Recover the amino acids of this structure.
């Protein structure tokens, strides 16, 4: 697999350090077979994936969004999926959560939808609970760790 990456802050050197090739935003959408989004939602990223980007994807492409719902223009995504302009989308985050029962995404056969649980894995929960026990024990001992500042 050839991995490409784009970010407003990504350098070719950093991409190469992680086994990827830095590309333009346009190339990311036109070249990707599977495009997975990993950004925080902010003023810079809200609507980052709009109709133009979605329409430039290959008809065989799959969009994966496990970052935040508002990063992808949901109405535009429904449109391109309904038209068969992309193969499928796997979505774990939505503009409105939980996703309303009558939302159009629910009726699309090329949509794989999960309820904001993509982070749930055995390994993650093992770490989460071990950290929680360590935090409680450290707090009780008067030496709190992992303090938020």
């Amino acid at each position: 697999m050839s991995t490409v990456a784009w970010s407003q802050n990504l350098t070719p050197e950093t991409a190469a350090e992680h086994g990827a090739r830095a590309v333009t935003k346009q190339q990311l959408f036109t070249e990707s077979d599977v495009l997975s989004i990993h950004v925080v939602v902010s003023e810079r990223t809200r609507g980052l994936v709009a109709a133009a980007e979605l329409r430039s994807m290959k008809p065989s492409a799959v969009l994966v969004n496990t970052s935040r719902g508002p990063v992808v223009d949901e109405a535009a995504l429904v449109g391109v999926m309904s038209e068969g302009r992309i193969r499928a989308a796997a979505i774990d985050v939505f503009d409105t959560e939980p996703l309303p029962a009558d939302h159009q995404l629910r009726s699309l056969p090329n949509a794989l939808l999960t309820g904001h649980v993509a982070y749930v894995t055995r390994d993650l929960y093992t770490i989460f609970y071990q950290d929680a026990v360590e935090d409680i024990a450290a707090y009780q001992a008067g030496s709190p760790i992992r303090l938020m500042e």
